[in-house]
Design a protein that fits this description.
about 210 residues; Arc Repressor Mutant, subunit A
Amino acid sequence: MLEFCGESMVRKTKEEAENTRREILKAALEVFYQKGYSRTTFDEIAARINLTKGAVYWHFKNKPDLLVELIKEHFFQKQMIHYEVNTWEDLRNAMVESARRIHEDPEYRKFLFFVIFQMEWSEAMVSKVGDSICGIRGYPLLQLQEALKNIQNNGFLDKQANIEELSLVLLYLWKGALGDEIGKFSNQNFPEMIAKSVDLIAAGVKKERS
């Protein structure tokens, strides 16, 4: 019985620690979004959720460490491609669905606005966090390359097509439309623009299967 109670207490403590960690990340995003990264302190993050600065340091050793975890926490929530792609229609639908989810999620849009427009990405800052998120940075391109290889193997893309170049074109298209959406630089509908753009690219390169 005592052993069972001990296991229960340990589990509860772990759950409480994880909840606190998530609260810190949420508070950090709010302050980063409002003030920018460089002007935010651990004191301000702690005060946002009535913690001490020491409590924040217990979970995150420094601000770059917190930033890395914030990026990891949000990255896989809205992947560009979230299921296997075998045709151009699959790719179009996957990218449109991701665009729709971003368009409808205020919290994630806040994260993207901070990362794209408010984060001071100096060379020194990139060197501090780059190794920790290098896999994340390259993942969207790998997703597109894998999708295009599947499309090619299924006979909807010419065998001579340059997968690397085509995946870069699609990635730059996505990044451009995403920046426009998050920065509110136009009144274009993000999911619709992704759909039209993928259709235009597909029309120029796709191969009808015989």
